[in-house]
Specification:
This protein has 283 residues and is α+β, with helices and mostly antiparallel strands. 29% of the residues lie in helices and 24% in strands.
């Protein structure tokens, strides 16, 4: 089933303009959500706003938006003034520069979109994708939509398409230096064992289909139990991690992994074997 476009735009760099369509690349609606209900009657609760000064409920028509410029001091704006502050939605993706793809830290990545060629843009679209793929570079640009200006990165996929990745601005990403780490020295024998543990569970490719949301799956099963009138079994709290000898932990991890590998092949191997089994059955 083909994806449904959520919008159209024009991809522009230099004097080249390519009409494109936008498609959501991810699905966020699959996340489970729970509603707040009144415990006594089971009715869903409504959100209301109360003024902390006089304790009265404030209807929406009496609300205004304000910006806090100092502690408990606000400057207010009318709907027309807020509209004037919004970025004009040009629906144009303006490419500013091309940079090596490995120079952009993934911590800047936000929501991804697919870009597909719109009517009249097929040839120029394919040309840009191939040129970017051969250059090993990605494009950085600006995209104005929904009253905002977004910093975006465009990259080619292995199957000849473009992904537009919204990026966080520099002031939206916290510096890693703010995370405290203790001083210490890694011993050579510890590093050797850690590398062995990595090698035991290392693969050369990423297969996302191997992984699934176990928590969501378990939650849906428990919800179904509640619907059928059964009680949910409360899981015991997980034991707190204890600080133990690092070398002993690494050795135990290696032994545990080796034993598990002997008992049962990993999921990735099982998934890889299935097509072969099917083709063998057909022959």
């Amino acid at each position: 089933m083909s994806l449904r476009a959520i919008g159209s735009s024009t991809l522009s760099f230099g004097l080249v303009s390519i009409p494109v369509k936008l498609y959501s690349a991810t699905e966020s609606s699959t996340q489970l959500s729970f509603n707040l209900l009144h415990k006594e009657c089971g009715s869903r609760l409504k959100q209301q706003y109360t003024c902390p000064k006089d304790g009265k409920l404030v209807p929406r028509e009496e609300m205004v938006k304000g910006y806090e410029f100092a502690k408990d001091q606000y400057v207010t704006f009318t709907a027309e003034e807020l509209k004037a502050l919004e970025e004009t939605s040009t629906q144009t993706i303006d490419i500013v520069e091309f940079v090596p793809g490995d120079k952009i830290d993934s911590i800047y990545f936000d929501k991804p979109y697919y870009l597909g060629a719109d009517k009249g843009g097929d040839k120029s679209y394919r040309l840009l994708v191939q040129a970017m793929a051969e250059s090993g570079r990605v494009a950085l640009g600006r995209y104005a939509a929904r009253g905002k200006q977004y910093l975006v990165m465009l990259r080619p996929t292995s199957d000849g398409r473009l992904v537009m990745q919204q990026l966080h601005y520099a002031d939206e990403v916290r510096a890693s230096k703010e995370v405290p780490i203790a001083d210490g020295e890694v011993r050579a024998d510890e590093l050797k064992l850690a590398l062995q543990l990595i090698d035991q569970i290392a693969h050369e490719t990423f297969s996302p289909s191997v992984y699934e949301d176990d928590v969501k799956k378990r939650t849906l099963e428990q919800i179904e139990r509640k619907i059928q009138g059964h009680e949910i079994a409360v899981s015991p709290e997980a034991p707190r991690a204890e600080i133990i000898d690092l070398m002993a932990a690494l050795k135990a991890s290696l032994e545990q992994k080796a034993a598990a590998t002997e008992r049962k092949p990993p999921k990735r191997a099982e998934a890889a074997d299935k097509p072969a089994q099917k083709s063998k059955a057909k022959s």
